[in-house]
Amino acid sequence: MLRGLDEVDWDELFHAYGKAVDTANLLRQAASPDADTAQEAVSELHGSIFHQGTVYPATVAAVPFLAELATAAPHGRADLVWMLGMLADPHHAYGDEVLDVRAAVAAQLPVLQTLLADGDQNVREAAAYTAAQAGTDAESLRKRWRTETAEPVRASLALALGLIDPAATGPELTDLVLGAAPPVRVAAAVALLRAGLPWPDGAVTAVVAAIDDGAIVEYCWAHGGEWSAELVVATSAPVARELLDQLLKADKPKTRELGLYAASERCDVSRSAPPQLVPLVAAAVNDPDPDVRQGAVSALSRAGAAAGRYADLLAGLAAGFPDVAGARGFTSEYQAVNALARLGDPRWIDPVCAAAAAGHRTPWSVRGARLEPAVLAAVRQRLADEPARADVLAFVLGTWRAPEAVPELLAALPHEGPEAAGALLAIGHDDPAAVPHLRARVTRTGDPAAALAVRRITGDARPLLDLLDTVLSGKGELPRGPQTFVDGLGETLYPLLPAAREQLTGAAARTHPQREVQILAARIVAAVDGVPPVLATVRAVLAGGWGPAASTAAGLIADLAPDHRDTLAALEPLLRGRLGDRLSRVSAARALARLGVPVTELTEPLVHGVADHAGLATILELRAVETIPGLVELTARDSRIHLGGGDDAMWNDELLVERIHTTIAALRAG
Hints:
Elements (H helix, E strand, L loop, with lengths): L13 E2 L2 E2 L3 H8 L4 H15 E2 L2 E2 L1 H16 L4 H12 L9 H9 L2 H7 L5 H13 L4 H10 L3 H14 L1 H14 L2 H13 L8 H10 L14 H8 L2 H11 L5 H17 L3 H11 L6 H12 L9 H8 L2 H4 L7 H12 L5 H9 L15 H13 L4 H11 L5 H7 L4 H11 L7 H11 L2 H11 L3 H11 L24 H7 L8 H18 L5 H8 L5 H13 L4 H4 L3 H6 L7 H10 L8 H6 L6 H7 L6 H9 L12 H21 L1
Antiparallel strand pairs: 1-2, 3-4
Helix pairs in contact: 1-2, 1-3, 3-4, 3-5, 4-5, 4-7, 6-7, 7-9, 8-9, 9-10, 9-11, 10-11, 11-12, 13-14, 13-15, 14-15, 14-16, 15-16, 15-17, 16-17, 17-20, 18-20, 22-24, 23-25, 24-25, 25-26, 26-27, 27-28, 29-30, 30-31, 30-32, 31-32, 32-35, 37-39, 38-39
């Protein structure tokens, strides 16, 4: 077994942790007669050559040996077959080598087809999936279908046939949805959706009954996340509502929980979904099962503005927050508080302050709090009455950047100095009383904004220079955020020049954080010595492949362009090459515009870049009225714009739409 394993130059190949020097030994261990040894080896292989879905050069070389193990290893053959299928599945595998890996798996198709008749039903179930991902012919699957009796295998075969030959398989899948055993019924329903074929009448009831009986779709067959969400996301709106209605009325609590999760997933992708689905979710808050009730509150708290209809319900739950604020995890009360804060409903203030008074400071419970006049007035009044509540309220005022609250924050400095000083810093209000806290903030967090504030208030530049020196020397981490904080410092930067010049090697550093430091150094040197000494290094970082440092380099070019257009013009081709890179398209477009490229040539990357946090600000800066039609389309479409996913998807999308409307109005106003 594993003939030729030592003929591979594994030390010339790479996986997630560097050179693949351990891969050959792990493959041998996967063939061990000891089950624990084999299982651990397969787990380590999964983590190295298929790390979180990423494939590598070592993955390509390992595929033939994985296929051999799948046929002859004493243990874990089904796991190996599933792994091979995932390596070829575009919903699970990513990376520069993904096409080569897929081709390597496809080359093992004859082996995989023999496994369709394996004596182990777990192997057969996995083989149906993997053979389909490898591009098997439909007849090989149908041959097995005609004799297969094990329900999990038949379910996998139904999904495989739906993938390989949906037109011919569609009528049979339609019959299976209504009359097959529960696992096959659910698999057929998913297969029809993926093939773009309608469900027959009665399918919703049949599918919900199957789920209530415990039917599932194997994880590898899922297209990311929970397979059940696909049932609700991919169906038409009327079918989705009927399906959720029945899921939430199902006998089993687990089925009702699944329905709540699926409702959130549908709302996460469709702007029109919450008004139709949130009433179903809200009704489940009164479910007899506590886990279902908590799931309903969780779904409601994620529902965006549609949750406002149930603000009284949320306020009733939030009132209990002080009693559970010290509990682990996200309680229903915590989620209700956060939903009220995002809705701009002031009824979050009392429970959060009461929890803080009892020793449970939870400013993160009101992350994303919406600024409304009534809420701001209530927060200011509470802070005036209880300055010590700056421990939680200052955080909110800082995120709002509300200058109206400066008097209350100054009064709170003697009580909660670090929090109040942080809020004043965010607002942009300098006060000598905050200086000790600002100095401590620089030491504790390396915040350049605090160091700059110390310099403005006292004239002392040492905290800022020390911070930058530790970064340039590699002894400290680069501060997050834009590097423009060094602009305008002039002669203050002189002591940093030797360390900064050492970073300008003319070549891109090995890691992205090191490249970010190079661009910081270039900004410092350019401020004193001009552009020519930094040009080679900036060019190298800009051309240095995928990564955030290229965006930072483009940002520096944009800032330098107005005064150095002729010197920087040679970088235009590299900047144009960045317009297709999500991480740097906005900064590249900004740089090109400031170098004189007409905005009409940059409309597409600017509009696509609205999902990037700097997109709208750049559009406004450039007065890019040409983007208005594209911006209007973004607000009118049903699919959401995702800024990172998670539980905030609906809230973030709704806020972004508001900002887009504001941007359009500002552009039209001239």
